[in-house]
Amino acid sequence: EGRAWPVETHHLPLPRADIPMERWVADAVRRALREENGSILVFLPGTGEIRKVEALLQDVRSDTVHLCPLYGDLPAAEQDAAIAPVWAPVRKIVLATSIAETSLTIEGVRVVIDSGLARTVRFDAGTGMSRLVTERVSLANAEQRRGRAGRTEPGVCYRLWHQGDEAGMAAHIRPEILDADMAPLCLELAVWGITAPSSLHWLDEPPVEAVNQAIPLLRSLEAVDAVGRVTARGRVMARLPLHPRLAHMVLAAKAFGLGKAACLLAAMADERDPLRLRDVDIRPRLALLGHGQGSPAVFRIREAARQIGRLVDAAGEPPHRTPMSIPEEEQAGVLLALAYPDRLAQKRSRGSYRMANGRGGFLDDTDSLADEPVLAVGAVNGGSGNVRIWQAAPLSQETVAALYQTQFTKNEEVVWDSREQAVAARKRVSFGAFIIEETPLRNGDASLADRMAQAVLSGIRELGMSCLPWTEELYQWRLRVELLRAVDKGGDWPDVSEEALLTGLEDWLVPFLQGISRRSQFSKIDLAAALHALLPWRKQRELDAMAPTHMEVPSGSFIRLLYEASAEGIVPVLAVKLQEMFGMQESPAIAEGKVPVLVHLLSPAGRPLQITRDLKGFWKNGYPAVRAEMRGRYPKHPWPEDPFAALPTRLTNRRIQNRS
Description:
The protein has 21 helices and 24 strands.
């Protein structure tokens, strides 16, 4: 371990969650100015937070207190000012990112204020994009930051979190290989002759998802062939100290006479936007970089571009690429397309795009590029869902074809279109999810009908069984079959539950889908015939006998049986007026007596008086009370004392007398 002076540590956690972190940092700085001497080094996650804290501390700036931001994009003179030593009574407050953890010593610093946060780059293999994330530092990072206060004399460190939080902090930062873009590594391995990174022994294995994203990208950049072996172009790309995307761009652009602009674009990729424009169009930025005066950042980019140009010349010539004439307004788009072929984007609606990698992208609908049919996209954010497009340039579909025609795929697609709720049958030429040409399939193809039927089945599964033209009779039919399947174990009844019918759609519904291609036509499906075909004629007769649709009651009426699904299974229900059941002692049953019928005994007005499976018990115990209450309410109907001896009827007393 290196020798260091002792550092006293204080924990100053945020007192309330609603206090902005930047304000609490500024308060900690003021406390340190009061309680300690010497210069102060403040660790913040990024430039945005540095600017906010700097604004909050304007009141402490004076001849003896200097505010000095320190981050990578600062002009060199301002970075030098932050690092330069000062002598008492002058004190510096250096507002820095993690750049100040290990890479430099700032003279005079004996106080460190640590926000406990850092901003790092994470590569998301799912999106194929890198994104910045703000996260808690590790214990090792925190100790490294704390040590900056004891480099030249005893110091003090203010940690803006609870001491107890340290038990949950990671001991060390994650190895970079677990979160990095694997394209540069995979290209380097391919140069070594290794096509499968998993064949090597690693301290930390490269994530499979990231590798599986990197290899197709390198293939589209012509750096590796179909089996992952490095190409001649890939060898030249690997000699350049650039990401493979940018290396491919500058090498290909040289053949198109766009070498200078490509080098500027490659240099700008490592810098912040020199114009800070809200507009997405990258062309004004390239124009500024190529001509006239500019800021220190612009001059840095120009110098970096010249260095890249010299390296490209020294790297050797890649395989010959056929020159092509590119309109001036599309040149920036061509450069972006060469570097980011997976981000070629097609307009879906104003400001909304679908990229070749399948992701959605958007820009403000007021942006000058919001109505362009095709965009070559450069910088994006890497969040989930649709990504925001920050830099892009227009491109024609013809130019896309000229650049990547050898990588186009042709296929026939018959799928269910969820938005249109119809079958989409088309021939498609595409570059990833970027559609070059699309034409409808014609009915002359003999297999088209079968494929359309399969697509309709996908639509039905997506929408659910309720999208089919069910009737009450068909629902009842299904419940009757389910009931017999449950009670007649050896009866070989088919499973007609909703889950089983959905799973087996191919077996019973396909023959009845001829001519059906959209949801609006589902009403034409002969669902009754399709379902009844599940039962042979003999089983249909058994169904009618064992689970009938109607039941004869003592009055001679044929009353409909309703089958209801309940927690106890399928229940047959007979809703019948009480007078029609006189004389019936045993409760009715179906399925050869295995399933009792639940009887709803109704008043003359059709309202339930009793629900029972024990008819005999009702006549003995419940009927007297019902008779006492109902005979006054319905005097025109018979209410005999002895229901066993009474004649069942659906008539009133007067009509009974008239008949007799």
